[in-house]
DNA sequence: GCATCATATGCCGATATAGGCATATGTCAA
DNA sequence: TTGACATATGCCTATATCGGCATATGATGC
């Protein structure tokens, strides 16, 4: 079944590195498509498609400004991701300590595949 | 070019809902593959494949325990995601306020497509 | 209307994915 | 060794994805 549609899931939407880049760029303020495309070194249709995904998920909103269409950040959905990962906060320290020993013993045995 | 390999990017690895579920389950402690498969209502090979992805990214580690192989959480990588989304923390409140007005005006116009 | 600029869509191809199923590998115990 | 159990791999199919390219839609100004 391939994978859940990128347009329905924020996690999936930000799985694409270029889309993450777009979000970062938009932190500096609203931008038209062309400018984003240029900044990321991709084609205009390419940028439009990524923005479409981001828009469907709600990470981005657009606004007409003359001939242009300005895209702006809507980070509310990112909060969900932040909170989900936050649910593991106790673990990214704890697991480190508690499991350190056996990680050592594991090091050479696996590592591959 | 399809998409970046799920095995090289944490964002991609957690883009899969069932893999996220696995991580959540592992918060309760180490678990063998079969138990995870059962808990998630998927086949054993299915669970093994997801675990393989999670292992390659480093979100999970395994340990032999008799016949079984226990999988345990290694949440360190999730910290990166947490911090990346945290970089938008100022925006998921601010954007709400600042853009509220035009969101209203937008509501009926788009919404679809 | 028409020309121009800005953006979106459609179609294509290459690739990756997830899931199902059979089967291989691995590990223990007798 | 053999058998039983646990897990991993391989092969297959259906589907999604991203990127490129051409082109359609949209908006502006003349």
Automatic annotation (TrEMBL), chains A, B:
<protein>
    <submittedName>
        <fullName>Transcriptional regulator</fullName>
    </submittedName>
</protein>
<feature type="domain" description="HTH arsR-type">
    <location>
        <begin position="1"/>
        <end position="93"/>
    </location>
</feature>
<dbReference type="InterPro" id="IPR036390">
    <property type="entry name" value="WH_DNA-bd_sf"/>
</dbReference>
<dbReference type="Pfam" id="PF01022">
    <property type="entry name" value="HTH_5"/>
</dbReference>
<dbReference type="InterPro" id="IPR001845">
    <property type="entry name" value="HTH_ArsR_DNA-bd_dom"/>
</dbReference>
<dbReference type="InterPro" id="IPR036388">
    <property type="entry name" value="WH-like_DNA-bd_sf"/>
</dbReference>
<dbReference type="InterPro" id="IPR011991">
    <property type="entry name" value="ArsR-like_HTH"/>
</dbReference>
């Amino acid at each position: 079944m391939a994978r859940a549609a990128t347009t329905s899931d924020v996690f999936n939407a930000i799985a694409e590195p270029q889309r993450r880049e777009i979000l970062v760029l938009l932190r500096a303020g609203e931008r038209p498509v062309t400018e984003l495309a240029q900044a990321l070194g991709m084609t205009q249709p390419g940028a439009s498609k990524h923005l479409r995904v981001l828009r469907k998920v709600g990470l981005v909103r657009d606004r007409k400004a003359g001939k242009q269409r300005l895209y702006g950040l809507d980070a509310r959905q990112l909060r969900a991701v932040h909170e989900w990962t936050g649910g593991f906060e106790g673990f990214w320290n704890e697991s480190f300590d508690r499991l350190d020993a056996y990680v050592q013993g594991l090091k050479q045995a696996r590592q591959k595949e």
